Amino acid sequence: MPLSVSNEAVSAGRTLRTVLGLFKLRIGFMIMITALVGLAVTPGPFIGWGKIVVMAFTVLLSSASAGAFNQYYERNTDHLMARTRGRAFVTGSLKSSPAWLVLMALMLMASVAIAAWFINPVSAAFVFLGAFFYAIVYTVWLKRRSWMNIVVGGLAGSFAVLAGAAAVDPVIGPLPFLLAAVLFLWTPPHFWSLAIANQTEYAAAGVPMLPVVIGNAKAAWVVWWSTLALAITAVLPVLFGAGVVYLVGALAGGSYFVYKAWLLARSPTRAKAMGSFFASLVQLSLLLLAATLDSLVP
User: Fold this and answer.
1) How far apart are CA 27 and CA 209, in angstroms?
2) Is the Cβ–Cβ distance between 258 and 275 less than 8 Å?
């Protein structure tokens, strides 16, 4: 009997991890954090912990619905790549029933409705746009049609920042707009670095990521120039109210990412590409942390 219970617990745990993986919650939490940072850097009165929790929940819920839709839509092609062939709909650990689409739609509708009711319609609109751009614009319209897929798809993270900012003030000022621009510029070099590392897989799967279209060598230089533009843009919020703490984080993270992207441009190997990819995560983490801490400084 104890063995049976143990096996059931293991099976339940595995199922839970499978379902959580379906909704891409690691990405969702990062997007939720960007929304909270957008809220933190926006000047205005404290909106209360209740609205902050609602803001975080609605962004996470909408992101989860878009992440699940991405896996459902690509369930017949994900087997072509090593990094996606273990997904639940590919392996059959979750049955790809149309009921999932109903659940995803309900999740998105609920997130938008809750944000509109408890926060404001402007914030709710950005919550919707973030999910729409990832699920429809990126996944359905652009991913298999254009190398611009990840450029336009990067707006999903930008909308999360604006959703958080609009929760404080629906009339969004220059500081959150600049932070949203930073998120927009961050996505291409972040993802293109990963795409260079996995160029052969994307080519085999027929996905026109930039390295597939122009080759790793040229793509690596595009990553470097894109990273340089990102690092410069990340400093601009200082001109609109961001302080010294933010500046230190922006310079440290930006310099590190630029350096790693430079190494990639000079030698476009898989190892250098993964180094640039992880540097992008460090850069974004430092930037978001610095922006949050800076907003707490009197």
Assistant:
1) 20
2) no
Dist. CA 157–CA 159, nearest whole Å: 5
Assigned token pair, 154: 């990067």
Phi/psi-derived region of residue 92, left when phi > 0, alpha when psi is between -120 and 50, beta in every other case: left
pTM, two decimal places: 0.91
Q: Could you read off the pLDDT of 234-246 as tens digits, one per residue?
A: 999 999 989 999 9
CB-based contact 197:223 (threshold 8 Å): no
The residue type found at 2 is P
Q: Which residues contact 43 (CB under 8 A, 6 or more apart)?
A: 168, 169, 173, 175, 241
Q: Using CB atoms within 10 A of its CB, is residue 154 exposed (0-12), middle (13-18) or buried (19+)?
A: buried
Is the per-residue pLDDT at 9 higher than 50?
no
Q: What's the helix, strand, coil split of the chain in %, to 5?
A: 80, 0, 20
Residue 32 host element (H or E): helix 25-41
- Rounded to 5°, the CA angle 273-200-131 comes to 75
First to last CA, the chain: 60
